Amino acid sequence: MSVPIQPPAAAEAKACCAATYGSDVVALLLGDSYHPGGLALTRRLADRLDLRTGEIVLDVASGRGTTALTLATEYQVDVTGVDLSDANVALATDKAQAAGLVDRIRFETGDAERLPVDAQSVDAVVCECAFCTFPDKPTAAAELARVLRPGGRLGITDVTVASERLPSELVGLGAWIACIADARPLDGYAALLSDAGLTVTHTERRDDAMAAMIDQIEARLTLVRMTARAQAEALGVDFHRSPAVLAAARAAVADRVLGYALLTAVKAQ
After folding, report:
1. Among 43, 95, 96, 160, which is disulfide-ready with 259 (CB 3.0 to 4.6 Å)?
2. What is the pLDDT of residues 78-115, one digit of tens each?
3. From residue 84, how far is each of 11, 109, 184, 237 by CA, in Å?
4. pTM of the entire predicted model
5. d(CA 218, CA 236)
6. Parallel, antiparallel, or unpaired: how do β-strands 258-267 and 148-161 relate?
7. 164 Cβ contact list (under 8 Å, min separation 6)
């Protein structure tokens, strides 16, 4: 049985997301990439965007910098990462320094709904598994379009949800933080981008990536329970409830209620 989703206040959702995704426990549960499909899907997205040497790329909700470092080293682009978490920005900056890439990568704290980036200043934008968490999605979509140069490309990978069929285990603030509660169906994301003045050029479902991440989280929860239980419980991980939540998520993927997708779009010349 599904229940109505009551979204938290925007400030509450943003603060909780920033604190949660800046934590070491989340890194342990989700790995370096923080999104289904990992770096393999990041490379798939970059290839669909046809990234070229020397282009300027904006990574929105850049996390701990894994995507930015991959794009800079493998595609020879210059990357600015923007993330709401100060902790993530600090860790990502340390990674860039350690890799000797500070001349081509920089990170700063910022809100996707008010990007600290000039209009028409980047060749491409990537946003992985984060758009679904933005409380004001039309404003965020408009910001992504604003910073793109004419002919610039946007690439998104994100959680998809048929919200009217979402089971009760997967709603609430915890689900919001887990990229579920305010996710949209694939055509919903496409409509948001179109309304922002972008032309959607490609979409593909990647539900397999979501199923694999659920398996990964289940395995890593076992490890966290043994090695960092107190820290995880302080963050809000409920080891008694987790099996039911994961089972509900796995069933939702099988029923195509919950999934994952890749979208690309272009700004008119």
Report:
1. 160
2. 999 999 889 889 999 999 999 999 999 999 999 999 99
3. 12, 5, 21, 22
4. 0.83
5. 16
6. antiparallel
7. 2
